Amino acid sequence: xxxxxTSRDVATRAGVSQSTVSHVLTGRPGxxxxxxxxxxxxxxELRYRPNLAARSMRTRKSGRLxxxxxxxTPGVATILSGAAxxxxxxxxxxxxxxxxxxxxxxxxxxxxxxxxxxFEGILSFTxxxxxxxxxxxxxxxxxxxxxxxxxxxxxxxxxxxxxxxxVEQLATQGHRRFLHLAGPEEYASARARRxxxxxxxxxxxxxxxxxxxxxxxxxxxxxxxxxxPSGAPPLAVIAANDVIAAGAIRGALARGWxxxxxxSVTGWDDLPLAGVMVPALTTVSIDRRALGAYAVRRLLAxxxxxxxxxxxxxxxxxxxxxxxxxxxxxxxxx
Length: 334
Known about the structure:
434 Repressor (Amino-terminal Domain); Rossmann fold; 4-stranded parallel β-sheet; elongated; DNA-binding
């Protein structure tokens, strides 16, 4: 049986004292960022995991963080994987807490979690109105409202700047006429994508056949295309998500229109099927993993009294594929 890696092994690999390793794990101030990074790198290389029970007895710290996420929304697993990795690199165990019920009920549940003293830090991705001043000195709470009170996407994930890139690229490919298939108005993400679309069209002097608002469904996209006048093509269709875009492609093919060709179609979310559709769908990928990792780094900084770490930059990236006239991807690179 392989011998367990110890903090002394980490100290030797990093070229620091054992107490320095301990200080990095407990978040003690006075450790330079370069030293901290060196220790964390040594931990990763040696696959070191601290003995949380022993640390708890010595420091009265549990080594546990909690992340509060709405379980019934897409992308949660990806956010959590990035958050867990960042927590593990800093020597913490991350636990998922799914809060249900109204915003008031979720706030009460969060206060109960604080009262237990089981967590050194609690990271909430849902906006929890109410008085959180009851948190004790041993628990740091950081609320990042990436989901609103109705658990709709909010915060950084609403950024719709990628729509501008899509419109500009399609215009350089020769498109002058556009259509936006929007999501429901009650979603901040739908409103943001619509606003950026309308601004991009106006800024570049392009023609818009309008904005068709509907549910996040394929039927919505298909119906919108079937109701277009016969003279609509050539047309660039900017759909607010991949499901609407798939419906738009179905509607186009039902009318005998080619995609790409008569219509160029783009979506949003980069769902697993987007890269294997026929044609493969041009879409926008959201780096939820980076969001989760950055959120935990912000929590750790708040726990240590450090300055907030630099942000991850844009979380969105346009994936150009066949549906918008891009060449088909090479095998193994959807």
